[in-house]
Design goal:
15% strand, Aminopeptidase, 9 helices, two-stranded antiparallel sheet, 281 residues, 36% helix, 9 strands, alpha/beta
Length: 281
């Protein structure tokens, strides 16, 4: 790797290739961006037993959210697939065992062994321990922080030729905030963030951005809000897969870059809101 190529993004990928299942890259500022479902790597045992083909697996992961984390210096990225362990589920549900755990998919040629489950939970425990230390360091420095929990979701589940799911219940961007213990201190920040996304020019259009419609925030948000009750606001940002063909796995690079630019353009508003709350950058 040449020195000129050692950006945070290439470094994170480099370390991921060396065997790390996630990266928590510390940086300046009280904003953190996380992509915990972008990972696509499988352990050997899971690859041997998993019944899903790669296209199906990719459809349920969150491709391109890794790229989105470059909006800020503090980044949490995961390279291991949610089909090994899902960091956005409670511990007892973190390793998928039955179709009911994973959108009705027939997951396994043979059920996961106790060793496979144990390995997944070992990763889970290590991830959350490192996350706790990572966020405690940010709190000790800034007092409060905002975590952007980045995801994407399917809206053509009935098939590639069927009509898309009802836009009334499937906004272009869903902001999950329901696990906040006390919303009041963060109200202005949340409103400003949603307003900034709504006002962004997306190829001459405005996207439908709504709160707690399709998703209310997953376990990661619940965990962070539970342990950093007075100091954390998790915004779980779910992008509808308007940037790709979810059945073929083909990404429209212009669209994903525009969404990335939209998110980046909303960062100053978060910083202003934090400043108004007394948080110094």
């Amino acid at each position: 790797m040449h020195h000129s190529e050692r950006t945070p993004e290439t470094l994170a990928r480099h370390f991921a290739m060396k065997g790390s299942q996630w990266m928590m890259c510390p940086g300046e500022g009280p904003i953190v961006a996380a992509a915990i479902h972008d990972g696509h790597d499988l352990t050997h045992d899971v690859a041997e037993r998993l019944a899903l083909d790669e296209a199906t697996r990719l459809r349920e992961e969150d491709p391109c959210t890794y790229r989105m984390t470059s909006i800020c210096d503090n980044r949490i990225t995961v390279s291991v697939s949610r089909f090994v362990v899902d960091f956005n589920r409670p511990r007892e549900k973190a390793v998928y065992r039955t179709p009911a755990d994973a959108w009705g998919l027939d997951l396994w040629k043979e059920p996961p062994t106790d060793e496979m489950v144990g390995h997944g939970l070992k990763l889970y425990d290590a991830f959350y321990e490192e996350l706790r230390e990572h966020l405690e360091a940010i709190v000790s420095k800034y007092g409060r922080f905002v975590l952007l929990d980045l995801h994407s979701y399917n809206y053509r589940r009935r098939g590639p030729d069927a009509p898309p799911d009802d836009p009334e219940t499937n906004p272009d961007i869903n902001i999950g905030t329901a696990t906040l213990a006390d919303r009041k201190p963060w109200e202005a920040l949340i409103r400003r963030f949603i307003g900034d996304l709504r006002s962004f020019d997306y190829f001459g259009d405005r996207l439908d951005v709504r709160e707690n419609v399709k998703f209310k925030g997953g376990y990661l948000a619940e965990w962070v809000h539970g342990r950093f009750k007075d100091s954390a606001c998790v915004l779980s940002v779910e992008f509808k897969k308007i940037f790709m063909d979810e059945w073929e796995g083909r990404v429209d690079l212009m669209r994903i870059e525009r969404l990335h630019t939209m998110l980046k353009a909303a960062m100053p508003g978060i910083e202003i809101s934090l400043s108004e709350m007394g948080v110094k950058p």
